[in-house]
Amino acid sequence: MSNGMYAVVETGGKQIRVAPGEKVTVEKLPGESGSTVYFDKVLLISEGDQVRVGHPYLDGVRVVGELLESARGKKIRVFTYKPKKNERRRMGHRQWYTAVRIQTIEG
Asked: Fewer CB under 10 Å: which end of the chain, C or N?
């Protein structure tokens, strides 16, 4: 992290704490590997002792990142059943994600 600067952004229905130079995984984003992505829904920004909190978002602040890759996560097993009915289903699920390297926090 550079001088303790970080931000909290909202993407994919989740809130993620990011800092410049950090690699994060988020819900799948459109775009090619190597392209630039902008996170405009910034909830909080902190630089040293100064903290700015949005209501709900900060105006004029955005986080810039570079798309590294899109892939699928580990498989999770989903098992559902209804007791006393002999009804059972076993399913698997692999969620798509995108790896992003955070470049700068602007604003």
From this structure: N
